[in-house]
Design goal:
- It comes from Flavobacterium fluviale.
- This protein is of the alpha/beta class.
- The protein has helices spanning about 10-20, 50-60, 65-80, 85-95, 110-130, 155-165, 200-205, 210-225, 235-240, and strands at about 1-5, 30, 45, 135, 140-145, 170-175, 180, 185-190.
- The chain is built from 9 helices and 8 strands.
- Helix 3 crosses helix 5 (about 110-130).
- The radius of gyration is 22 Å and the shape is globular.
- It starts with a strand and ends in an 18-residue tail after the last helix.
Length: about 260
């Protein structure tokens, strides 16, 4: 067995795929950044991300997959489900070895699991577009904190760039400790230490615009006023807005202690 260690990026994983074929590695297991102690007697192959090798794999996949299937591969990678890198590698190997398109072969577990994982990332990105709540700082930066189940910031960045093109903003993933920052021209990835506990009045007073707390309270009152108690359906509400997202939703912060 060979542990293939890469940097955790999609480009790094594609480079790893290229080198598995290049060096004829067998029984591969992927690891991010460092070797797993659970596989003490395995061989180790360390991958240095190479855009040329990654592009060669992508070019080959474009010839064998539809645009939808090609996108599903990336979305499935971003799902970060357990052993997804191995599942994706088997999917890619199947695609390269087949003379026909494999995307509808749902009897194959790897094809089915890639499709399910891609759907999961797509669903999570859709939720993030609806659940991002920006706050305004004193230096006119709009920031939001999210904790999605999947790594969806790369998927949603164009949506927010187009929708909020006239203001600087930062969306920070507290689970993965990185964010995407828009400077009125480009979106870039940033890594920073960020306090995700933003609900306190002390925090708001220190970094937020002086009117921010007023507008947050105004939004909470509006949200409360449009709810019709007689039509309340808690089960349906939780289905569309799961409670795990509430800690970063302005309108839900007063309900967290219930």
């Amino acid at each position: 067995m060979t542990q293939v260690i890469y940097d955790g990026t999609y480009e790094g994983w594609l480079t790893a795929v290229f080198e598995i074929y290049e060096y004829k590695l067998k029984d591969v297991v992927f690891a991010r950044d460092e070797a797993s102690n659970a596989l003490l007697f395995s061989n180790i192959h360390i991958v240095s991300t190479d855009s040329i090798k990654a592009d060669r794999v992508l070019d080959g996949l474009k010839k064998r997959l539809t645009p939808t299937g090609f996108a599903h591969l990336y979305y499935a990678f971003l799902s970060e489900l357990n052993q997804m890198e191995e599942t994706l590698f088997r999917f890619v190997s199947y695609a390269f070895s087949s003379s026909i398109n494999i995307e509808q072969d749902l009897g194959n577990n790897d094809v089915l699991n890639v499709k399910k994982a891609a759907h999961l990332s797509g669903k999570e990105s859709h939720r993030m577009k609806a659940f991002v709540r920006f706050k305004l700082t004193k230096d006119e930066l709009y920031y939001a904190i999210v904790e999605p189940d999947c790594n969806v910031l790369p998927i949603i960045q164009n949506h927010f760039k187009n929708r909020y093109a006239d203001q600087r903003w930062l969306i920070y993933d507290a689970k993965r400790k990185y964010g995407i920052y828009y400077d009125l021209e480009n979106v870039s990835t940033v890594e920073l230490k960020f306090d995700s506990d933003t609900s306190s009045s002390k925090f708001l007073a220190e970094i937020c615009d002086e009117d921010e707390e007023f507008f947050q309270n105004l939004w909470r009152r509006y949200f409360s006023s449009v709810n019709i108690e007689s039509r309340k359906n808690t089960k349906l509400h939780l289905q569309h807005m799961p409670k795990r997202y509430w800690k970063n939703l302005t309108e839900k912060i007063p309900d967290l202690k219930k």
